[in-house]
Write a structure and sequence with these properties.
Largest sheet: 6 strands, parallel
Order of helices and strands: HEHEHEHEHEEH
Shape: globular
CATH topology: Rossmann fold
Mean pLDDT: 92
Structural class: alpha/beta
Bound molecules: flavin mononucleotide
Distance between the termini: 41 Å
Low-confidence stretches: 14-24
CATH class: Alpha Beta
Helix content: 40-55%
Number of strands: 6
Strand content: 15-25%
CATH superfamily: Flavodoxin domain
Number of domains: 1
Length: about 200
């Protein structure tokens, strides 16, 4: 009788471990990639990471943009005109392993920043879920989310998140702290619930 009980318990344990390993192989792997110059989008990326986990990666350029605001504005305008894609220093290790890719960026000249275009064009995101997020100086997302959709025609692009960040033009750099950060955290929680993306 004792032996029978032991065998039964063993069978139950095996079943539980088989079930949990099946669950972990089917769990979705999350990558959070972001571009940030004055750290507002980075702060949003961190808040998203707090909620959903996954791998967090900052997009860095081979040749960084100028510090001066007017110079970067001019350079970005020229890159947009010519379609130049700045080479990325950041390399993603086997993108294939990720099912959900969050892509974060500031609005630049009411458009998607060229380095984010470099990322979306460089990697094969076919079949993945893409989740855009943005900060801006108060003028909104411009054409950024539309461009993400255009550059990911074979992905499932979910509704993005946007919030007001800094206003570098006016000397307002990092704002995502204290009350503003708390508020952003709540906005992010509500958005993640709405789009049904959660920690795996
Ligand atoms: C080159 C450049 C262009 C920008 N263009 C816009 C714009 O068109 N509209 C807007 O609302 N904010 C614009 N901004 C402001 C940023 O979107 C805003 O400060 C954002 O929060 C910065 O994010 P970050 O701190 O992650 O770099 C621009 C900033 C830079 C550096």
């Amino acid at each position: 009788m004792k032996k029978g009980f032991f065998v039964l318990m063993l069978a139950v344990l095996c079943c539980i471990s088989a079930c949990s390993s099946a669950q972990s192989t089917s769990a979705k792997k999350i990558l959070i990639v972001y571009l940030s110059r004055t750290n507002n989008t980075k702060a949003i990326a961190n808040l998203i990471h707090d909620e959903v986990g996954g791998k967090l990666v900052s997009l860095e350029l081979e040749k960084p943009y100028p510090e001066n605001y007017q110079s970067i504005v001019q350079q970005v305008a020229k890159e947009n005109e010519t379609g130049y894609l700045p080479p990325l220093k950041t390399k993603i290790d086997s993108i294939d392993q990720y099912d959900v890719v969050f892509v974060g960026f500031p609005t630049w000249g009411m458009k998607l920043p060229p380095p984010v275009k470099s990322f979306l064009k460089q990697y094969d995101l076919t079949g993945k879920t893409i989740v855009p997020f943005n900060t801006n100086a108060g003028y909104g997302i411009g054409s950024t989310f539309e461009t993400v959709k255009e550059l990911c025609p074979k992905s499932n692009v979910l509704d993005g998140f946007t919030t007001k960040g800094g206003i570098e033009r006016d000397g307002v750099y990092f704002v995502m702290q204290g009350e503003r950060e708390k508020q952003a955290r709540e906005e992010i929680k509500a958005w993640l619930q709405k789009i049904k993306v959660q920690r795996q």
